[in-house]
Each structure stands twice: as structure tokens, then as C-alpha cells.
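REQUEST ID: PR-0412
SUBMITTED BY: lab tech R.K.
PRIORITY: routine
TASK: structure prediction, single protein chain
INPUT:
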Amino acid sequence: MIRSVGIVTAAMTFGSPSRLEDTDAELIRRVVAKDRRAFELLYQRYAERLQHYLARLISKPDVTEEVLDDVMLVVWQNASRFDHTSKVSTWIFGIAHNKALKARTRLASRSSEQTVSDEHAVEGEGPDDVSMRSELGRVVARGLEALSPEQRAVVELTFYQERSYQEIAEIVRCPVNTVKTRMFHARRRLAPLLAAIGLGPRPGTEEVSG
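STATUS: complete
OUTPUT:
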């Protein structure tokens, strides 16, 4: 079994800038033929973005690393299943989404409640800065944790991955209108928390769309 962590380490050491210009579709075609170099380039291109996405859905670093590895292993083993009817990135994020939801279910079954730690202060920050940043982190984390996994995924893909509703629908495998509904309810639930720290409209002042 090929493990993607070892592959990406080699890729970062021996990478060729010109090959990084290959399109995602071309890399996938080469991965189908079990071209390890193409897989290394694809991993370099997506690993960081996927890790950020997974971290917000899972919020447990060691599990996030495991899931990232599993996602890219699926890409390596199942590249032939990509049918080129969507973007390669949409297909890969769809795999990541499914893996993240399964990981969340496993963690929930262990009753492993996650808390935000104040110990990771940025060097050079004053006490007030650290306190404010920690409070903001707690509020945002608390708000996201209050959302359902489906709503949280839509928020993450929209605001952190800059995906369109159409792309999100393909990733999470639901109609576009369902994505819009999830976002509507997510914003409604987040509004009071954001308003409390001055980052959103006060409850009851939001405009009602037609």
C-alpha cells in the first residue's frame, strides 16, 4: 500500500517547476496509469488546502492528518473513477467531505469533546491581544460547533475555500437549493454570536431576502 506522506516528501525534494504547470485533468490521467510523479504533484497542489478544510470539520490534528492521507490514498487508488464531468478539485473535495463526516462520527462515538486552548499564544502578543484573539477563537469555534456537520461544511467551503454553491452541491452531493438552505440556517445560527463581538448585525436587524 502506498502512503501519501512519503510521496509528498519526495515530491518537495525533487519537484520540477515546469511539471507543476500541468493541469489537474492531465495529472489525473497520469495517475490512472499509476504515474507516481503525477500523484506527487497533485498532492503538493492540494495537501495544504485539504488540510485546512479537514481541520475545520474535524478540529483534531492527528485525525486530520490521517484523513488527509486517506483522501489522497483514495485519489491514487480510484483515479479511474473520475469522469471529467466536474473539476478535479470538486471531486477531491467531495472525497474529503465524506471522509471528514465519517471521522466526525467516529470521534463523536468516543465522546471526545474538543475545547479551544489558550496555550498557543503568538510570540510577541500582549496580554490584551492574546485575550481578544482567544475570545474570538472561542466564539467562532463555539458557533461552528453549534452547526450541523452539513451546515458547517457549507460555511467552510463558501468562506474558506471560496467555492460556488454549484461546486458545493457537487462536493456534498445535494441540490443547489439545499446548499442555499443550509447556508441560510447556518447564518441565522451564527448571527447572535457574531453580533455579540461586533462582527455582524444585531439579532432582529438582518434583512429578510425575498
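NOTES: The domain at 1-112 is CATH 1.10.1740.10 (Rna Polymerase Sigma Factor; Chain: A).
REVIEWED BY: pending
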